[in-house]
């Protein structure tokens, strides 16, 4: 092969490779542009622009009187577009930047004027389009900032970008905090915030964002493309004043008893509305916070408060009557190799009513075991008929499950029936127990507790709620009447007498002191107790029912001494502030009642005061100053003659009016005493000498 052929071969090979490479590039371009074009275009778009959700303003949660329990306060993140239309030219920016820096420094106080100037100038040189100025700026602050130099050019020319963020606050801080709840998408919803999140959260909007240098995303447009829809408001049943009373009373007793935790629930008898629900947990010595909603979540052995259900079953099944006799055997009852003892030994033969009032464990255990041991299912079926084995179906999440055994349970023993009679070997939450007591106060009508009355959007009702009726009649009227009398007896002559009884209104209820089991160790280790009182008031016309529960109080642990004071304090204050519960007081109208006196003074002001008091005015004087005169029919006046050349009659006037009038006439008043004018040194009607002193005495 000669040299020419060799060179041509090499040229052809090189050219062929170049052609093949060109075809490969063209093929790849075609593949990217046509075959995978849509995929890469979408990826490019996602990297440079994207839509982000704009959070809606969450709805408010309000108390029954309209007070804000939870609300969203807008806060803003301030950004600055340093290439905005109004400052495109350097001259427009640099003429005002120092003034802007000065205003920002004075307003926020976090940087000096020089520091702000340097930051803004540096951002300008870098061409920043989304420069961060400040976080957590309030709406009122934003309004003032919009008046600053450059920013006052307007939304588009001034370059100020306010990114709204909503901060959730509780105006009353810890008041009913656990019931109000909070939103947490990662865990079980809590309280009203969680239960009604679909209403409260509203609907998110959408905003087109563009990625700029530094990986920062900024809005493409100043306005949001799809505006968010604000959330609806929740009108709760909570009475903020009663809630405050309940929390303070509970915390005070918890500190005194050094208890682990406790709760108070106040419920309106006829409507089921929860007016107060307080929970507190010991976090350190003398410090209690609301950590868990024990009122609705803690299922525990209720103890003696459950005796009401046991006696209801026995009375309704005609096993006994209130005057039936029970031999308490000195306060002990032996059953299934176990001795049940009363807290106060020595009880002998008692009537059923007396046994209830004295809270005899031996009596109720003997009564239930004797009458139902051959057919224990009759007793448990009766408890099931009372719906004590079912959840209440609350409007807020987290309700604890009740446990009411029956003979099919593996743990059922020869002792179970007697133990259940006084509230052991079972579990109920405080709210479930209160609902049962409320049905007795409500003459047998059992209704589910109500936490939310209404949902409103823009002031219009979206949905309203009334209490769900669980059972129209849980037992006969005769049984209800007997139980109500027994509950009154507990406070009048029984275990609640010393603390809860009072002369103003009657209370009906039941004390409950239960020993708390220590897990698998049962009751054999160190003893701890749960003290409770459940009842309603006024007993003769029930309006409110209430339960108080304190867990593991130190020292005194009997319910009357621990839970009783909390019940009494809350009930007293609720009663004192609810006129509807007062006994009717006959009005007595007394003749010749003296009307409230008034100082002499300005006519218009005097008229306004008497009008506000609803007192008839019998005058039609046009004089600027008048002297009111008491009459039996209304208020008559005599005019105060005013002549700029004569000393006016200021007798009966207050200091303000007297000095005003004398000074206007050119006299120099000298004041002695206080009250209303009784004497003046210059006689009324004498000629005025400008600047002349006049002494006025007031009493």
Automatic annotation (TrEMBL):
Keywords from the UniProt entry: Carboxypeptidase, Cell cycle, Cell division, Glycosyltransferase, Hydrolase, Membrane, Protease, Transferase, Transmembrane, Transmembrane helix
Location in the cell: Membrane
Top-rank taxon: Bacteria
GO BP, sorted A to Z: cell division; cell wall organization
GO molecular function: carboxypeptidase activity; glycosyltransferase activity; penicillin binding
Main location: membrane
Tagged with keyword Iron-sulfur: no
A GO cellular component annotation in the UniProt record: plasma membrane
Parts of the chain that traverse the membrane: 7-27
InterPro entries: Beta-lactam/transpept, Beta-lactam/transpept-like, PASTA_dom, PBP_dimer, PBP_dimer_sf, PCN-bd_Tpept
Residue span(s) of domain PASTA: 641-699
EC number: 2.4.1.129
Name listed for the protein in its UniProt record: Cell division protein FtsI
Organism: Arcticibacter svalbardensis MN12-7
Lineage of origin: Bacteria, Pseudomonadati, Bacteroidota, Sphingobacteriia, Sphingobacteriales
């Amino acid at each position: 092969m000669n040299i020419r052929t060799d060179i041509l071969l090499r040229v052809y090979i090189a050219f062929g490779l170049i052609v093949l490479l060109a075809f490969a590039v063209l093929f790849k371009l075609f593949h990217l542009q046509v075959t995978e074009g849509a995929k890469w275009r979408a990826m490019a778009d996602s990297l440079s622009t994207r839509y982000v959700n704009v959070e809606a303003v969450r709805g408010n949660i309000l108390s029954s009187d309209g007070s804000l329990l939870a609300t969203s306060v807008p806060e803003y993140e301030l950004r600055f577009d340093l290439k905005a239309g109004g400052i495109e030219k350097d001259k427009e920016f640099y003429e005002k930047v120092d003034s802007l820096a000065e205003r920002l420094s004075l307003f926020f106080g976090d940087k000096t004027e020089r520091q702000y100037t340097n930051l803004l100038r540096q951002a300008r040189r870098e061409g920043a389009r989304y420069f961060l100025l400040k976080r957590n700026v309030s709406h009122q602050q934003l309004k003032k900032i919009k008046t600053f130099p450059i920013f006052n050019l307007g939304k588009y020319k001034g370059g100020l970008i306010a990114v709204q963020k909503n901060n959730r606050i509780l105006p009353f801080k810890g008041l009913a905090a656990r019931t109000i709840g909070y939103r947490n998408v990662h865990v079980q919803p809590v309280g009203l915030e969680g239960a009604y999140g679909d209403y409260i959260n509203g609907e998110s909007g959408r905003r087109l964002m563009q990625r700029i240098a530094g990986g920062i995303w900024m809005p493409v447009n100043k306005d949001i493309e799809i505006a968010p829809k604000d959330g609806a408001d929740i009108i709760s049943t909570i009475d903020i004043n009663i809630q405050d009373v309940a929390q303070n009373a509970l915390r005070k007793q918890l500190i005194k008893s050094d208890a682990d935790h406790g709760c108070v629930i106040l419920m309106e008898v006829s409507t089921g509305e929860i007016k107060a629900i307080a929970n507190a947990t010991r976090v350190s010595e003398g410090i209690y916070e609301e950590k868990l909603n024990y009122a609705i979540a803690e299922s525990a052995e209720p103890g003696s408060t459950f005796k009401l259900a046991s006696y209801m079953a026995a009375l309704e099944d005609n096993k006994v009557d209130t005057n039936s006799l029970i031999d308490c055997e000195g306060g002990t009852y032996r059953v299934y190799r176990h001795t049940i003892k009363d807290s106060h030994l020595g009880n002998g033969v008692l009537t059923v009513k007396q046994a209830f009032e004295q809270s005899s464990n031996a009596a109720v255990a003997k009564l239930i075991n004797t009458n139902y041991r051959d057919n224990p299912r009759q007793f448990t079926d009766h408890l099931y008929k009372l719906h004590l084995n079912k959840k209440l179906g609350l409007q807020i999440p987290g309700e604890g499950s009740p446990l009411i055994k029956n003979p099919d349970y593996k743990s059922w023993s020869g002792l179970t029936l007697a133990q259940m009679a006084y509230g052991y070997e079972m579990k109920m939450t405080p709210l479930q127990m209160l609902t049962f007591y409320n049905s007795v106060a409500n003459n047998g009508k059992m209704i589910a507790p109500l936490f939310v009355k209404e949902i409103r959007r823009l002031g219009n009702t979206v949905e309203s709620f009334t209490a769900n009726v669980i059972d129209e009649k849980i037992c006969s009227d005769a049984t209800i009447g007997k139980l109500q009398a027994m509950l009154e007896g507990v406070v009048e002559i029984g275990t609640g007498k010393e603390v809860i009884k009072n002369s103003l209104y009657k209370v009906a209820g039941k004390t409950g002191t239960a020993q708390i089991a220590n897990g698998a160790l049962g009751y054999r280790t160190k003893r701890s107790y749960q003290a409770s009182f459940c009842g309603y008031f006024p007993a003769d016309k029930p309006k409110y029912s209430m339960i108080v529960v304190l867990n593991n109080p130190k020292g005194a642990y009997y319910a009357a001494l621990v839970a009783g004071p909390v019940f009494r304090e809350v009930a007293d204050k609720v009663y004192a502030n609810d006129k509807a519960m007062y006994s009717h007081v006959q009005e007595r109208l007394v003749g010749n009642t003296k009307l409230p006196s008034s100082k002499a003074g300005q006519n218009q002001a005097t008229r306004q005061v008497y009008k506000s008091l609803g007192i008839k005015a019998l005058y039609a004087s046009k004089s600027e100053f008048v002297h009111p005169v008491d009459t039996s029919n209304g208020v008559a006046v005599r005019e105060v003659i005013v002549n700029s050349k004569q000393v006016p009659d200021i007798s009966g006037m207050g200091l303000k009016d007297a000095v005003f009038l004398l000074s206007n006439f050119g006299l120099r008043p000298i004041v002695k005493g206080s009250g209303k004018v009784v004497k003046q040194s210059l006689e009324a009607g004498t000629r005025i000498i400008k600047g002349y002193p006049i002494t006025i005495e007031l009493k």
